[in-house]
Automatic annotation (TrEMBL):
This is Na+/melibiose symporter-like transporter. It comes from Acetobacter lovaniensis. Residues 91-110 are annotated as: Disordered. Keywords: Membrane, Transmembrane, Transmembrane helix. The chain crosses the membrane at residues 37-62.
C-alpha cells in the first residue's frame, strides 16, 4: 500500500511538472461553489472508502471471535457430556453441590 502511494505521488509530480495548472479564469460564485463541492465530494469519497474498509475488517474480526466462542462452548459441552458418560459407566451418578443427583435431561435419573 505504501509503495502504491509513493508511485501515485511520483506520477502526480511528473504530471504537474509538465502540465502546470493555471487559474486565469474568473473567480465568480459558480466557480467557487463548483470547486468547493468538488473538494467535498472527494473528501466524502475518501471517508466512505475508509469506513468500508473498517467495516469489512470489523466484520471479519467479529466472525472470527464468534467462531472461537462457539468452538469453546461446544468443547465445554462435549467435555461435560464425556464426564457424565464416564461417571455413568462406572456406576456413580454425578451430584451437584447440594448432594442431589443430576439428570441427563431425558426424564430419567442417572
Amino acid at each position: 500500500m505504501f509503495a502504491a502511494n509513493v508511485i501515485l505521488f511520483g506520477v502526480i509530480i511528473v504530471f504537474f511538472s509538465y502540465h502546470r495548472a493555471s487559474f486565469d479564469g474568473d473567480w465568480n460564485g459558480p466557480t467557487v461553489a463548483t470547486m468547493a463541492l468538488t473538494a467535498a465530494t472527494i473528501v466524502m469519497a475518501a471517508v466512505t472508502l475508509m469506513v468500508g474498509i473498517i467495516a469489512i475488517w470489523g466484520y471479519a474480526t467479529l466472525r472470527e471471535q464468534a467462531e472461537n466462542i462457539a468452538r469453546e462452548t461446544a468443547q465445554d459441552a462435549v467435555d461435560e457430556m464425556r464426564r457424565q458418560i464416564a461417571l455413568l459407566s462406572i456406576g456413580t451418578a454425578p451430584n451437584d453441590d447440594n448432594g442431589e443427583t443430576e439428570t441427563l435431561g431425558y426424564g430419567e435419573d442417572s
